[in-house]
Amino acid sequence: MYKKQAPELNFTSGRRYVTSSTTGMMRLNSKHYNKALAFTIKERQLLGIHGLLPPVVRTVEEQVRIYYAQLLNLNQDLAKYLFLLNLSECNEVLFYKLLEAYTEKCLPYVYTPTVGLVCQRYSYIQEFPRGLYITFKDKGHVCNVLQNWPEPDIRAILVTDGGRVLGLGDLGANGMGISVGKITLYTAFGKVRPHQCLPICLDVGCNTDSVREEPYYMGLKRKRPPVDEYDEFIDEFMQAVVKRFGQSCLIQFEDFGNNDAFRFLEKYRYQYCMFNDDIQGTGAVGLAGIISALKCTGTDLKSQRILFQGAGEAAIGLAQLLIIAFKKAGVKEDEALNYIFMRDSKGLVVKERLADTLNDNKLLFAKDMPFIFKLEDCIREIKPTILIGASAQAGSFTKEVLRLMSSFNAVPIIFALSNPTAKSECTAFEAYTHTKGKCLFASGSPFPPLEYDGRTRYASQANNAYIFPGIGLGATACCIRYIPSEIFLIAARTLADICTPEDYAHGRLYPPLSKLSCCAFEIALSVITYAHITNLSTVLPRPTNVRAFLKHQIYDAKYEPVIPPWLNPNGNQNEKVRHNCIDCIDC
After folding, report:
1. pLDDT tens digits for 280-292?
2. Residue 409, annotated ligand binder?
3. Which of 201, 182, 251 is nearest to 475 (CA)?
4. Model's pTM, two decimal places?
5. What does the DSSP 8-state code read for residue 537?
6. Which fold has domain 280-464?
7. Is 104 marked within a binding site?
8. Which is the CATH superfamily of the domain at 113-272?
9. The domain at 24-110 falls in which architecture?
10. What DSSP letter does each residue of 213-279 carry, written as one string?
């Protein structure tokens, strides 16, 4: 007599096989279980959907190629974003398979630069309940709103208040587009299981009149509240997340206003499992690019002079991480500060501006030297070896600026980190042309390869997607207590170590985007190892093989069979045996 067995847990994909109570039509209408034309004829007959699909049976690889061809036929970036969004709501596995197979082609439409346009028009795009909106009117009842989210096992939250979306300013509730876009990358590259990820928009109002007064704006049509009331609301949100999902739930802050971002990071960084990607993630990916550039030039960090154009979240975050890197290299903090210069919209950050608008974050980097306004004059005086743009001021790296950098350095290091593309300080073409091909260049937005002096140059994209998916995977896998700054230094070094001599030969300071999953996996390994050494991990007993432990945590986008193997022991005899090596992420 047949003996009923417990549902089999597939450790690779991280979800149980669908119960028999899920009908065929329910599967077709569910993004989690829909296989479309990949349902076999036998499965269609068993589920009662035979005849509801064309007779052809396709593999997931064939489906990926067909959908990629459809994507290429679309002409507008926004149309491509909507195509991918609709696919993710119809067939989750196929969506992630498509991102995995064509990462470099699809990433710009899921994340930067298209996500900037998406956020500007999000009130016209919102179709599916892709995340959770918690408004200022919910103050006092935030936990009740969190209870409405149907998934109880949330491990990673990406939260924004839309206060400073990319370089576009305050977009209010339209900032949900950035939360939805980036949380997708947690699964696509970090392999955090999709049902464990939650994008959230905290709608507290919008101070941009043109956005707030837009007739179809979907957020609260009010200005932002006073700081004390706003802080009480954020306090309630953080406490509610812990109450609903546990202390180890990762909370990534994204695109908050400058002052709010720094204030919340300092307030919560040791109380909760949280980080700010605009400050810390950008800092880590920027530092990784600098480490790679120094390997290319054969110099060390102590011989550099670094000038920032811009003194906001990204610049301060990278500068603070550089201080940690200098200290690890044996340089005292006071001495390290002498190597870092900042210029904001009002000129060089110097001590004589103390009565001006310098906040505490800028004050640390204020120099005891005469005030200089123009960027060109700053370069002449400081003679920096590294020029980093994080100002969202398009074209601020002029022809004269780039030529000055080239005149003072045999190999100038130039980073134009602002995005979207329209906000970039310069293009890759301008950087290579005006430095006569001498520079090592990285940008926040993607630029196509270009030919210069008979050589193909690949513009390196300093994309935060290299960093935060790996941080998220590692933090959630080991249930880390909190995330210290040293983790971002470790992540930067790990990312730089993945670059190969071939990457450097082509001018790349980062691995190809096709290796994003590999980068995330290796960064996660480093995070877990650090967490175990410092007793920040709450997972007990500690795994003896961290790589094998992590492999069992990751999500693998694949179709689940309708009939579990324990019910059909002979069904998989003719299928190719899956490689199960624990030494690589690709198996």
Report:
1. 999 999 999 999 9
2. no
3. 251
4. 0.92
5. B
6. Rossmann fold (3.40.50)
7. no
8. Malic enzyme, N-terminal domain (3.40.50.10380)
9. Up-down Bundle (1.20)
10. T-TT--S--SPPPPHHHHHHHHHHHHHHHHHHH-TT-EEEE-S--HHHHHHHHHHHTTTSSEEEIII
